[in-house]
Structures are given as structure tokens and as C-alpha cells.
Amino acid sequence: MKVGIVGGTGNISTSVVKLLQERGHDVTCITRGSSGALPYGVRHLSGDRNDLDWFVPTVQRERFDAAIDFIGFTPAHGAASLDAFRDVGHFVQTSTVTTVGQTADWLPITEDHPLRPPVPYAVDKVALDRMYQAAYLDRGFPATIVKPSTTYGRKRVVRQVGIDTRWIRRIREGRPILRVGEGTALHHLLHVDDAALGFVGVLERDSTIGQTYFLVNPQPMEWSDIHGVAMDVLGREVEQIDVSAETLYQLDPQRFMMVPGVFAKNLLYSAEKLQRDVPEFRPVVSLHDGLADAFEYLQSHGLVDDVPVGDWEDRVIEIQRDARRRILEG
Ligand SMILES: NC(=O)c1ccc[n+]([C@@H]2O[C@H](COP(=O)([O-])OP(=O)(O)OC[C@H]3O[C@@H](n4cnc5c(N)ncnc54)[C@H](OP(=O)(O)O)[C@@H]3O)[C@@H](O)[C@H]2O)c1
């Protein structure tokens, strides 16, 4: 198939482009060219999707058989993609499980769960998803909605208190790291290469048109175990110090935005519908191997942040330890 990708050099889309090429598809990516180069053999349309005078006619001329939009975030993006890809045979919108919200009426959460988007990012994703669903119902626009949960790889590693690379440095230096509420909350972490199996499997099947799928690792893990695997990979065990989600949020609402409502909770999503319709979606990258690859890439490319001694995490850890000592000493 002639496949158009909006994005292609990002965290998830890099793996999707690689798998599409391996499966023999003719791939064209639309990026501004600032986030890295595309693999040999992938065509590049260089431009900004927000420049509609360029984006819409350029994409229309291509007459793609299929497309995936990785950077549709606003209703304006939806209107532009509906116009630009109006002749496409299958269109996949990248949405997010965050559209569901921060409370579950049942577990595991299934695709028919009510949507209570908690942040503007998710409100806009819901609006976008509804545009594509309406276009499918009204005029047969061949849309599928894919909703990933936390997806990690070389361009994005995640721990319980957020998305950063500082914990790699801390573990390597033998410094403790924070976790929330004893780290017992369960979370789905999916490697980008496994996410690619889901995206490509959906795209290659007409039977998925009109459907919405969660794209999650069917095997959730406790955060303290996730941190433990990272320590195994880095060859050093450090103490995990507990702090409440609310304390972190009040300390820095921007940095810890995802902690109280998502990373501190057991928001479990079902992978069953995707595995039923795309049987090859069976994650094969172990957390150990996925983190080892990501850490090695980040370290060898100088992408692991420095962590000055006495930074915010050291201070929170010291105060938590002190409070514990005083409670236990009466
Ligand atoms: N990772 C997760 O855990 C997760 C979870 C749920 C949902 N999602 C969804 O996954 C999608 C992100 O996919 P990703 O991780 O592959 O993307 P990403 O890492 O955010 O990368 C963005 C890609 O899009 C290109 N791009 C960005 N702005 C552009 C613009 N204005 N015009 C043209 N190209 C542009 C970038 O290249 P240039 O910079 O060179 O333009 C790059 O190729 C989002 O829709 C997000 O909501 C991710």
C-alpha cells in the first residue's frame, strides 16, 4: 500500500515506519524535518501540518491508499486531515486512553467506557475522535481510532513520578528515587516496537474501519517492579522512597500533572478487542530488553539529564526520611 504518515520520526511513529517498510509498504512521512532523519527508502514531504495552504493540497495530490495521523491534537487538525485524506482507503487517528478520564466505572476499562477527559489535551482528542466517527457514520470516511496507553522507547522513558531521564542518572549514581504510595499501583508500559504491531495490524485490515481500539500491554506491572527492572538493567539497586501523589502535585502541578490521576492509580485497560481483531498484536519486547535498549541509546547520545546534588528530588527524599524517622522515634 502507499501509506502516508503524519509524523514518522517520533517516539511511536519511528517504529511504525520501520515495520511498514519491513512489510513492503511504500511509506511517505510528513514532518518539518526537525526531529531527525527518516530511514533510507522512506519518502519525505517536508512541511508544517499547521500550514494548511501547503498541507491539504500536498497530501491530496499523493492519493494515499492508507494513512496514520500521529499528530492530530485539535479539531482544526481533524478538519485538515479529513480534507487532505478525503480519498484515502483507510485512516488511523492516534488518540489516547487519557480520553477515558481518571476514574473507572469497571475494570479492566473497555472501549465502550464513558469518556470523562480530565485535561485539555484529552478534551481535544475526544472532539477529534468524534469528528472522525461522525465522518465514518455520515459518509463512510474509513477511520479507525487507536488509543495507546503509556508507550516507551528510545525517545521516551517513564517512571512513576513522570516522564524524564533523571532517574537513569540517579540510579547509576546510587541515589534513591521517589515512588508514589509504595509503588503498588499497576501500569501498562508498552514498547514502541510492540505498539507498531498494533498500528500496522489495524491499518492492514479493512475490518477495523469504524472501530476504536485501546493499544496497551496486556500485562500490567506494579511501578516498584518497573523501577526494579530499570535497576537490574543499570546494574545498581537503589532505595525507593515513598511520597504522596498529592504532595508532589502541590509541589509542582506542571511537572507532576499525570501523577495523582494516572500514575498513582490502577487504570487498567483491556487489550482484548485489539488482540481479537489483530491477532499478531502479542507484545514480545520484555521490559528488561526495552529499557536496556532505551537506556543505552539515551546514554550513548548524551540525552540523560544531569541531576545536581540537592535538587528537588534529594530535598523531598530527605524530608520524607526525616518525617519517617521522627514518627518511628515517637
Ligand atoms: N507515547 C505515549 O505514551 C502516548 C500515549 C497516548 C497517546 N499518544 C499519542 O501518540 C502520538 C505521538 O506519536 P509519536 O510518539 O510518534 O510522536 P512524537 O514523538 O510526539 O513525534 C512527533 C512527530 O511528528 C512530527 N511533527 C510534529 N509537529 C509537526 C508539525 N506541526 N508538522 C509536521 N510534522 C510534525 C515530528 O517531526 P518534526 O519535529 O521533524 O516535524 C515527529 O516526526 C500523539 O498523538 C499522542 O497523543 C502517545
UniProtKB/TrEMBL annotation:
Belongs to the NAD(P)-dependent epimerase/dehydratase family. Gene3D superfamilies: NAD(P)-binding Rossmann-like Domain. PANTHER family: DTDP-D-GLUCOSE 4,6-DEHYDRATASE-RELATED (PTHR43000). Residues 5-208 form the NAD-dependent epimerase/dehydratase domain. This is Nucleoside-diphosphate-sugar epimerase. It holds the Pfam family Epimerase.
